[in-house]
Amino acid sequence: MSKEIEIKIEGMIYFVRGHKIMLDNHLASLYGVETKVLNQAVKRNIERFPSDFMFQLNRDEFTNLRSQIVTSSPEHGGRRGFPVAFTENGVAMLSSVLNSKKAIKVNILIMKTFTKLRRFLTIESSLSDRIDKLEQNTELIELNSVPIILTYKCIIKVHIFWQ
Fold first, then answer.
1. Residues 91-150: pLDDT tens digits?
2. Does residue 87 fall inside a structural domain?
3. Which of 95, 110, 114, 150 has the most CB atoms in a 10 Å sphere around its CB?
4. pTM check: above 0.85
5. Does residue 28 contact residue 35 with C-beta atoms inside 8 Å?
């Protein structure tokens, strides 16, 4: 069961403003509460959520994300404003605001997923650096090989000439 939730959580993490974030409606569905209940709990404890923990998406960010995810339509009772984005720290803080056993369990899974994502991004970055170094070394080898190949061709021509 938790593996299924981890996979679901991975699909709910986005990159916005240089942060890995989760949207309020996704978090609410994971915690088993309505989005407005989650947001009300946050508003009652707003001092726990500075701007690097949570922020409201602007029109462009929302439009970019909407093309990637299914969102509700305002005509069908969906949200009226732009979603609230919670950074990793903001998600961690939510566990102190939503004080239920389910919220704690879900938060643990979310934190593990953020950690796994961070580990993956570190490995990806390391591999990217290695590939760049290999490409640079290959270019150097190619450049250094040109004189050797030309010398070899000259030796072959001289050898053929003297036969």
1. 988 878 887 787 778 888 888 888 888 787 777 667 777 777 777 777 666 666 667 666
2. yes
3. 110
4. no
5. yes
Q: Are 13 and 20 in contact (CB under 8 A)?
A: yes
Residues 46 and 81 sit within 8 Å (Cβ to Cβ):
no
Contact in structure between 36 and 62 (CB atoms under 8 Å): no
DSSP 71: -
Contacts of 93 (CB under 8 A, 6+ apart): 48, 49, 53
**Both tokens of residue 124?**
């990806």
For residue 7, the enclosing domain spans 2-122
- Tens digit of pLDDT for each residue in 14-52? 989 999 999 999 999 998 899 999 999 999 999 999 999
Structural domain contains residue 46: yes
Judge whether 128 lies within some domain: no
Domain count, the chain: 1
Question: Which tokens go with 95?
Answer: 């566990």
